[in-house]
Amino acid sequence: MKDPHSTRDIGPRVGTPLWLYMVSAVVAGTGVLVVSGLDLGLDQISGLVGEPLVWVLLCMIILGELRPVAVRGQAMDGGSPTSLPFTLAIVIYYGLPVAALLQAVAAVVAGFARGHAAHRNAFNAAQYTLSLGVADAVLRLLQPILARLEVLPTGGELAVVALAGVAYLVVNRILVMCAVAMHERVPLQQVLFKDLTQQLHINAVLVSLAPLVVVAMTYSVLYVPLFAFPLSALHASALMLVRRDHQANHDELTGLANRTLMTVRAQEEISHARQRGGRVGLLLLDLDRFKEVNDTLGHATGDRLLETAAGRLVHSVRPGDLVARLGGDEFAVLLPQVRDTDAAAEVAARLRGALGEPVRLNGVDLDLEASIGIALYPDDATEFEPLMQRADVAMYVAKAGRTGVESYDPGKDRNSTARLSLFSELRRGLAEGALEMHYQPKIRLSDGRPIGLEALARWRHPTRGLLAPGDFMPIVEESHLSRAFTSQVLDATLARTAQWRADGFRLPVSVNLGVRELLDPALPATVAAALREHGVPSAQLVLEIGEHALIVDTEAATAAVHRLRDLGVGLALDDFGTGHFTLAQLAGLPLDEVKIHESFTAHLTGGSDQGHTVVRAAITLVRALGMRATAEGVQTAALAEAARETGCHAAQGHHFSRPLPSGEVREWLAAHDGGAVADTTT
């Protein structure tokens, strides 16, 4: 199977070292094939063409080329071809001309069957010919009798056969790895010794079979195809292990490397760069407005869009660069060797240009755009995790400023080392589903019955345990993680709401929105899609909008609130009294509820008379506007009673209930007569 993300079928530019090397190899291989063929007379050639054994061997070599034995870390169509025993046997039995010709034909046939480019097929045929030429030279030099036609090696000659096999393998590996090193632009020693131990074990088995193939050839042509069974079993067992390794290290949807493989490769490249000098680049890329496309056109279209983006990214990077999908619409590109920031920016610009080409899916033309952040080793960080954090900061700057591409600038980084570490851990936590939802009941003050639940996210940190929102929400609200965070909270909350609804508990559940979430153009589509997916009526979802979110950009926020109202969801103003939001502004918003912050509510039982009067007046105006007033942070019975007397419709706080883990909510509701429907009284 051809790897859709391989760049080895892209021909080298004329005049480059790789082009010169491949041309030289093809010329040399062709020369060896022609010169060796002169040893064959016309009678011999005619006899070989009419010999069934030759055709059987050709088929076995082609089959062996198509069924290599791969090792961990290799592509599933890579590895040591199981054609080696037959090719080496032909060198022993028939000589170099026949072996080289059959192997060259098989390499070209198998290459075209896999969809490989012509230059790659020509080089493979040439390097096989040169490797076989060296093996034949060893046989001629150490045991001339083995260079004759149709000779059966004896026990004493097996050592010479083994040396010929070793010579073949050494030359073959050097020829191939030189091309790989030049293609990927890495030092030869970096690829020459990679997976060498595993390759030696496999190739030792394949070489040891060559004398047995010769023995089978001398007895009957029918014996030769029997080798297909053990070799196919070897291929299948190795392929099973490679597939398992591939699945663990690659994204299932796009086939790209995943976060695990990206981390390993990046650490390897940083280690190489530390030893030899030079720079390693890391690009983090986030697709703009992908969530909007996904929610509007469906997940299937979104998946196809991601596959398209992955293909474009792979074919826009340099040979040797690694493209990975980190999750969702976030990708990373590792640049193992990069000259400087400008060179990395050139790659980033090429990526944006490739993504910017229109995509037509389901009859709709879509435009892809991306924000890309760049960080370099050792300029910006000397370890992988800090390097990833710096690239993420740069990407956030690019997204916030809509500049497309940004390199890491310490002057624009407001994060401390601890904050960056927490940010990286949170991003990983979101990808791994580390959020846990708790729900705090909202109580109607007139009769003490629960009339709603507020969803509150907790983060199960791997070392610090369960973290409250105050420990991580500032990071969410100031980064590009806000969209993924809101999406996960909505999904988890509505999934749980649907379960409670099926159990007969139909209270509305509220979810908090920050500035970035409210002003996200994709939010209405995200909410609508989540409601549809979980089968929850829109009236059973309440979106709580922080007071600060309405102050930052009042005009845009007001428009966003009206768009959300069109969905039919409930809307509440949260944390009223903490900022500079005026009661006059409140009148222009289609809100159902105003939640009064606990610092404001506290004036009802303590503080100055003036404070008490202000709170009472605010609650009166809220009610006059047809909205419900809810007191937050109610810790005592006295405060609950004061809130009721002042006109608050409902209250929340530890006096009634702490935030409950999702698994405890159903039991709590059952014990408190919580099977209510949406409460609309003021």
TrEMBL record:
Residues 278-410 form the GGDEF domain. The chain crosses the membrane at residues 18-40, 52-70, 90-113, 158-180, 200-217. CDD domains: EAL, GGDEF. It comes from the Bacteria. It holds the Pfam family GGDEF. InterPro entries: Biofilm_reg_signaling, EAL_dom, EAL_sf, GGDEF_dom, Nucleotide_cyclase, Rev_trsase/Diguanyl_cyclase. Residues 419-673 form the EAL domain. NCBIfam families: GGDEF. This is Diguanylate cyclase (GGDEF)-like protein. The lineage of its organism: Bacteria, Bacillati, Actinomycetota, Actinomycetes, Streptosporangiales. Keywords: Membrane, Transmembrane, Transmembrane helix.
